[in-house]
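Open question from group meeting: does this chain pack into something compact, or does most of it stay loose? Before anyone orders reagents, we agreed to write out a predicted structure and look at it together. Recording both the input and the output here so the notebook holds the full record.
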Amino acid sequence: MTPQELLQQQRRQQVDFNLSLPSVTSRELQAGQYSVAVQRTPKAEQTTLGRLADALGKVNPIIAKYGDAQIAENERQILDVQQQIASMDPAEKERLLARPEAEVNLSKAFRDDYELNPVATYRAKMLLGAEKNVEFNAVLTERIEEFKTKFLREEGDKPSYSQISKAINEITQDYLKSSGLNSEDKGIMRTGFLQEASVNINKLKQTLPSAMAEEHKQEVLMPNLASSLARTYKPQDGTDLVRLKSQWDNFSSSLSRSEQIKVIDSALGILNFDSGTKELNDGIAFLEDMRDAGVTIGNQAIDSASGSPLGESFYSTKIDELKEMALTVRNKEKAEALSRANDY
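Structure tokens returned:
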């Protein structure tokens, strides 16, 4: 039954509506050695408010039916609106978004057989605003990459949570301005857009700080530490072991064991220790300097074997590897020298 049919019913329902005052009688109670007369408390249904509530309660089913019918109609129209917007031509969406909300006739844009009620109209305008979220996410991704470049690659720093949050808020406000959603006549559409965009915005604010901290470690901290260690090694003048240890302790504490090993390998690569016999011997000397300086990997000394499942330390394994490479290069150099001598 529709709301109109409910309101147009001819029959009426008779209810009792007697608001006469309840009778009050006194009774005697024993209080110590004296008899005391007190007034009996009337029952709830005998009071004026009680009678009124009882009368209204008999009319309530009609009101409830009307409310249920209205909710069902709202849900039907909202579902229709969602389907219509999903299938609407993008150019038509942009045309509607460009107009002031008060001038957007959604009933005419969608269908002509009924007028959208206020609830469905409000929802439709919110959905139109939410359609801008796809474009916004593309802008957000591009601007975040620019933000990363500025901090990580140009300044060599990692941003704080507040700096990231401020940057995301600025990007959002810039988009609202450029898209026209910040104008006074776009309040409902702006609400729909922000409601849809808030999912990705809040996710970025939570995940981007840790993600950028990891990128800073991999792209800035570890390469810089490897370069610093390579520059500190001085085979001719003697390496400053105190400085070497200080550099390692100051910048490697946030690194895992595998990341610390990666830094040392990178330092060996920077020094080009694998190109010839002399360089490979210098590589061995560099590792010995790291050991003598008291450098630790994890919480163990660099030459400790306790951190390896095979009972061998990174230090001894790397030394053996460099010695084997040096022997291979030396044998190759001897073979090449003998070949040149035979040519003469």
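Observations to bring back to the group:
The first helix runs from residue 3 to 7.
DSSP finds twelve helices and four strands in the chain.
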